[in-house]
Write a sequence for this structure.
């Protein structure tokens, strides 16, 4: 048995014990209780979305299904959660599309830098045919794509100095999400890209193991990274959305009608999530500025866009089908 497999088995074992301890299964009524994992805190917009989804499923199935939401990364880091989902040890999760690039080859296209013209055009695509087709690309991976949630745009922050252009990033160690694409993007910016789990970033910046990270406003704020990395360069370099996923094992148990209910509930929860998202984005930005952090607004995006050309040289081929669809509608 290789090490990865043993550690995965161990995670399944630990998750099972934890879930039993939490009393998730075996509730006294006849409802089938499912578990949904999210690595954000209770009142974070994705968790608000998860809970709306749970409420709608319960309502539409007249209480036959109940979904317990485990927020705050209680069940593990994002990548291990996806592996547990594939094994059917967890039923549902909300994760970001960036770490999923290794699980569904196609969905990675959404993590390419400067892919969409703006947020409106991104959402037109996500709510349209492209979004539907991408959700279907999980087929064969033991994962079921249910809906996209808003995650805005990601920018770069650090503890050392104001960054205006990619050249300023030279020599800085920037944490990225665990994904080859994320590493390639930051290499192209000229930084030293350091993949790491989200929960480890705060102390890694604090102790100087890394110089900074990259994220959207709500994550920068709620993770408290703003306390240890005061310079935020708003270069909005990419906008991988969040995604609500189910396990194949759950799907196999559901009737055709119930699958429809789960899909519908997921799509209906998006509006609530997006409203909470817009609110927290504004609030986070204001709070961080009020605290005295320095926000570097980028006027000329040319050097940033030019820097990522090697990323398009490498990934442009594999993602051509999707990029063409997006560009043909510009
Ligand atoms: C957040 C995202 C999380 C996680 C995190 C990270 O924006 O919502 O799911 O991917 O970023 O940087 O690891």
């Amino acid at each position: 048995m290789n090490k990865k497999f043993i550690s995965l088995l161990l995670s399944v074992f630990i998750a099972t014990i934890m879930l039993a301890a939490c009393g998730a299964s075996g509730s006294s009524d006849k409802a089938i209780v499912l578990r949904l994992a999210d690595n954000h805190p209770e009142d974070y917009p994705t968790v608000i979305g998860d809970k709306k989804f749970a409420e709608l499923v319960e309502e539409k199935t007249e209480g036959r299904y109940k979904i317990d939401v485990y927020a705050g990364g209680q069940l593990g880091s994002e990548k291990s959660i996806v592996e547990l989902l594939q094994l059917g040890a967890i039923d549902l999760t909300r994760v970001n599309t960036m770490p999923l690039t290794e699980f569904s080859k196609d969905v990675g296209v959404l993590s390419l830098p400067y892919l969409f013209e703006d947020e409106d055009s991104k959402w037109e695509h996500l709510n349209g045919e492209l979004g539907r087709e991408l959700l279907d690309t999980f087929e064969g991976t033991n994962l079921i794509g249910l809906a996209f949630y808003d995650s805005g745009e990601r920018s770069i922050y650090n503890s050392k100095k104001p960054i205006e252009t990619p050249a300023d990033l030279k020599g800085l160690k920037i944490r990225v999400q665990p994904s080859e694409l994320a590493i390639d993007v930051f290499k192209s910016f000229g930084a030293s890209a350091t993949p790491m789990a989200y929960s480890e970033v705060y102390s890694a910046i604090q102790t100087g193991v890394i110089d900074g990270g990259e994220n959207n406003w709500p994550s920068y704020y709620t993770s408290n990274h703003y306390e240890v990395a005061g310079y935020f360069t708003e270069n909005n370099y990419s906008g991988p959305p969040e995604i609500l996923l189910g396990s194949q094992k759950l799907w196999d148990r559901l009737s055709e009608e119930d699958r429809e209910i789960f899909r519908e509930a997921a799509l209906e929860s998006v509006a609530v999530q997006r409203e909470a998202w817009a609110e927290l984005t504004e609030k986070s930005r204001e709070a961080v500025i009020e605290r005295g952090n320095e926000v570097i607004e980028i006027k000329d995006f040319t050097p940033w866009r030019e820097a990522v050309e090697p990323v398009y040289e490498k990934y442009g081929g594999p993602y051509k089908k999707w990029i063409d669809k997006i560009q043909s509608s510009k």
